[in-house]
Write a structure and sequence with these properties.
This protein is mainly α and 475 residues long. The protein has a domain at 15-54 and 97-248 and 273-403. It has 19 helices and no strands. The chain has helices at residues 15-26, 29-41, 45-73, 77-87, 96-122, 129-135, 149-161, 163-182, 184-214, 217-225, 234-247, 254-259, 268-296, 307-317, 322-356, 360-380, 402-429, 432-439, 443-469. Helix 3 runs parallel beside helix 11, helix 5 (96-122) packs across helix 16 and helix 11 crosses helix 19. The relative contact order is 0.19. The protein binds phenylalanine (PHE). Phenylalanine binds at residues 25-26, 28-31, 105, 108, 246-247, 249, 252, 254, 340, 343-344. Phenylalanine (PHE) binds next to helix 1, helix 2, helix 5, helix 11 and helix 15.
């Protein structure tokens, strides 16, 4: 029997604390690893422009919707949706999208922690290189032990071939995430964001300046901002939409959960805009940091997912001061990943507290431990279980290993589904006066939001969902 919803009673200490934590949740591997990868693969400019349009026309209205639900609900995602539904005379059954979102967050966390583990290796913190490098008097060589392309490629393959190493790093990263979330909203999540986000921005600006001074900034700007519309295929539009959802942390009830810790004040519209603008700026800056370096060394921007793990380490090592800046680059990704992984764990944790009545440490341990175990399956998919295809019966995932299956299933099915249900719920079911009073939007902004969330979002997200699941209809 599900207990009646309890409020967790926790809250942010200020509006800026909420913004920092929410920006921390949004800025992650999605901005620094996935965005440059996709932009590089899709030929730059055209992808970037469609991506920005998706963020502001679809993403931003959804950000505001999720924060609204949390702000009104004041508890975990499921309980919050139920509360908004009750105040809007809608069915409590709508809370199902909170539950799907929480499951998606839990699943994403499992592989996110594995990928963050690779970053630990490249930062030289694991894998022995760091110690070797220090003994050799070159502390920052850890990130860049290879001498040529083949050696760097070998390094990536060696890492994938070692389940023990992958497991240790996954354990370390998940342990850190668990530790922060177990300490609670105020002394865990908020504190982590207040220390880590300023450090993140200093590192980011430093690395962009490094790219501008030592790299080929002109080519990078031309690549990222000159659209070649012939490159704009339906697949590219589809991936731009999917990336916008992922990067803004939409569809996992994360912003519902974080929004529920807002205790007072309105101004939800400007808060949402700040989150979307900050997340987009970070993605663009990540592009302006990575591509000048890639171009300076004459490498291929379309390397795919190994851009950051193979192309970039090679580029760094050919650059002046590259060892130090390469190391700092991986520290930057790590910082971004931590502030996102804690938001992923917080969603199911809040569910355990709000709906099951568990204590915070118990809920953190159950969901963090569960995601850790699923992550072990993901990392074994790179070595011992390389042949396992969990959804092999489904043509879409026929060739996909364990980690990519979870990534693909959450990204192509669960996130768009939750985003669609959120848009329909807010656009068509939620009480207008409640929306108006809670968001405090001006009449024109309110009208625009209502139009985007009731019409554009459901239509566009349905298109992503359908074309994502049945790519053959595009051909
Ligand atoms: N937005 C995060 C990123 O860009 C990923 C994420 C998705 C985090 C969903 C939380 C929830 O890396």
């Amino acid at each position: 029997m599900v207990a009646t919803t309890q409020t967790t009673g926790e809250g942010w200490s200020s509006r800026s604390a909420f913004i920092l934590a929410a920006v921390g949740a949004a800025v992650g591997l999605g901005n620094i690893w996935r965005f440059p990868t996709l932009a590089g693969e899709s030929g730059g400019g055209a992808f970037v422009i469609v991506y920005i349009a998706c963020v502001f026309l679809l993403g931003l209205p959804l950000v505001l919707s999720e924060i609204f639900i949390g702000r009104v609900g004041q508890t975990d995602a499921v309980g919050s949706i139920r509360r908004v539904a009750a105040q809007s005379h809608a069915s409590p059954g709508w809370s199902i999208f909170g539950a799907i979102g929480a499951v998606a967050a839990f699943l994403i966390l499992s592989f996110y922690s594995v990928v963050a583990g690779w970053v630990l290796y490249y930062a030289g913190i694991f894998g022995g290189d760091f110690v070797q490098a220090i003994t050799a008097g070159e502390p920052f060589r850890g990130a860049l032990a290879g001498e040529n392309q083949e050696q760097i490629q070998q390094r990536l393959s060696d890492m994938f071939a070692s389940p023990g190493l992958l497991l240790t790093m996954h354990l370390f990263f998940m342990g850190l995430t668990l530790f922060i979330v177990a300490r609670g909203v105020h002394s865990g999540i908020e504190k982590a964001a207040t220390y880590l986000m300023p450090a993140f921005f200093v590192l980011l600006v430093g690395l962009v300046l490094y790219g501008a001074i030592e790299g080929d900034m002109g080519d990078a700007i031309a690549f990222l901002f000159t659209p070649d519309w012939s490159k704009l295929t339906p697949e590219v539009m589809n991936s731009a939409l999917g990336q916008a959802l992922f990067s803004l942390s939409l569809g996992v009830a994360g912003l519902i959960t974080y929004g529920s810790y807002i205790k007072e004040g309105s101004g939800l519209g400007s808060t949402s805009a700040m989150i979307a603008v900050a997340d987009t700026c970070v993605a663009l800056l990540a592009g302006l940091m990575i591509f000048p370096i890639v171009f300076a060394v004459g490498l291929d921007p379309a390397a795919g997912p190994t851009l950051v793990f193979q192309t970039l380490p090679f580029a760094f090592q050919a650059m002046p001061g590259g060892a130090l800046f390469g190391f700092l680059f991986f520290v930057l990704i790590l910082v971004a990943a931590v502030t996102s992984s804690i938001s992923l764990l917080e969603v199911p944790t809040a569910y355990g507290i709000g709906e099951r009545g568990w204590s915070r440490p118990k809920s953190t341990l159950i969901f963090g431990g569960g995601a850790f175990v699923i992550g072990i399956f993901c990392l074994l998919g790179y070595n011992l279980w390389a042949d396992v295809r969990p959804l092999g019966f489904w043509s879409l995932f026929a060739e996909t290993d364990i980690l990519d299956t979870i990534d693909g299933f959450t990204g192509k099915v669960m996130l768009p589904l939750v985003a669609l249900l959120t848009a329909v719920f807010i656009g068509w079911k939620a009480d207008r006066n409640l929306l108006r009073a809670t968001t405090g939007l001006s009449p024109w902004a309110f009208g625009l939001w209502r139009f985007l969330i009731a019409w554009l979002c459901p239509i566009a997200v349905t298109i992503i969902l359908v074309t994502g699941l049945f790519p053959s209809i595009l051909t």
